[in-house]
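User: Good morning. I'm curious how 6-O-phosphono-beta-D-fructofuranose would be positioned relative to this chain. Could you predict the structure with it bound?
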Amino acid sequence: MNPASRTGLSQRPQWTALADHRVALGEVSLRQLFADDPDRGERYTLRVGDLHIDYSKQLVTDETLTLLRELAEATDVAGWRDAMYRGERVNTTENRAVLHTALRAPRGAVVEDGGPGGPNVVPEVHQVLDRMADFADQVRSGAWTGATGRPLRNIVNIGIGGSDLGPAMAYEVLRAFSDRDLTVRFVSNVDGADLHESVRDLDPAETLFIVASKTFTTIETVTNATSARRWLLDGLGAGPEAVARHFVALSTNAEKVTEFGIDPANMFAFWDWVGGRYSYDSAIGLSLMIAIGPERFREMLDGFHLVDEHFRTAPPEENVPLLLGLLGIWYGNFHDAQSHVVLPYSHYLSRFAAYLQQLDMESNGKRVQRDGEPVAWQTGPVVWGTPGTNGQHAYYQLLHQGTKLIPADFIGFARPVEELPDGLAAQHDLLMANFFAQTQALAFGKTAEEVRAEGVPEELVPHRTFPGNRPTTTILADELTPSVLGQLVALYEHKVFVQGAVWGIDSFDQWGVELGKVLAKEVEPLLTAKDGERSSDSLDSSTAALVARYRALRGR
Ligand code: F6P
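Assistant: Good morning! Here's the predicted structure, ligand included:
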């Protein structure tokens, strides 16, 4: 790793070369680029595993790509990547290794925490996976019973952030692979409505709570888990001994798990070298494993591993996460793009963008470099998106004709999931026709001449003209399987890594979430105290007035 890579990014010759190149390119015309190079649509494609990546509709030339790769080289992306895979403590502000890649390493692989000579973490990973598989099989078969002797058919995961978004997203994605006799729900919000709506129609005698929290100190999760325990024991009319049959924990913190009242024998561990937002392929995925079964879960891990190996070994010209990361830098740093939209043309991926929001924004939403110096360049984008075709009837207007440049990833599949009845599977062609049409319209638009040629009255011509040159990447796979999901997630994980390495930031801490948590602890007693017991004098006048209004509305 080259420490010099951490300073003065925007002064680097590779950076200024890109800035100059951007000016020289001017307004890129994708129509022109395609006309100049009839093979562009073929040439600008890559393959990783089952994923076919078409980046021909990006505002780039061969020179752009070369310059971007030179920037990656100058900032030692490969050095940082190798250090991560070697188990070195690349999460510098927390002095931790970053080893989510070990979670999907095959049995027998060696990955050393802290770098060469450190303890090999792979055997432990597989021990936990084996225990999870054993437990999942017991729940799925009905061999694991609740306190009344009935099998547990309702699985409720309680967690937030990385302890919720990953398994919740993946469960949605892989519903068609799940045991349809199980009811699987995810509770995250400390708003009591979330737990209420998730359990109100469930029978406690058949309900398993999975309390997922890396730290086991997260107030939302501990509060919801405490309420869930009350709901269970009240519903069963049972004593605390019933908890052991209905509660398991997923955590790194055995002490807190025990303190909460969950038997450590019912705890599935993971480790501080797994970041929360990189954790759903650890024990945090237990709810998913119960839903889809250990075999399918293993297939998903293999999909992750395939892309891990690609990222580690593929040359820069063929390295897909590197390419996607650099394209993001091209737009964020050289076109002033503020956001990035992810548009899956699969209803099963409805929560994918929400998952990516934490992955990307918690990782790269940073304003200082590793050495604490403020960055003088843009870092992570706002990430958003919903499945097509719904978005088309909501915000695509802005994508096509608005004033903002919003690079988009289109994710689609050649085949609908097998489970769909024939009549519904037949709709897939229409879905995918929209998928292809949208990238076409965004790239090539419709000129004023073309609009006029249709006989549109002159005063409407500007309104009906599409400028085009809106960049997209198309990610196409045969079918949405557990392995393909693993491949997709690993792709985005490593894309985020590439960008963090170029920007010189620590993508693996999340200090920005702390202040709000601390203040909430201070504010809560001010909301609940009896009149006169607590003073809001220390608050700013806005917050003090809001607290007073809230108290008045609550009759306090
Ligand atoms: O507040 C942010 C965060 O720390 C995330 O990084 C994490 O995924 C989430 O909270 C939940 O944390 P835990 O798993 O420790 O409950």
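Residues 1 and 76 are 6 Å apart (CA to CA). Residues 119-293 form a domain with the Rossmann fold fold (CATH 3.40.50.10490).
Let me know if you'd like a different ligand tried.
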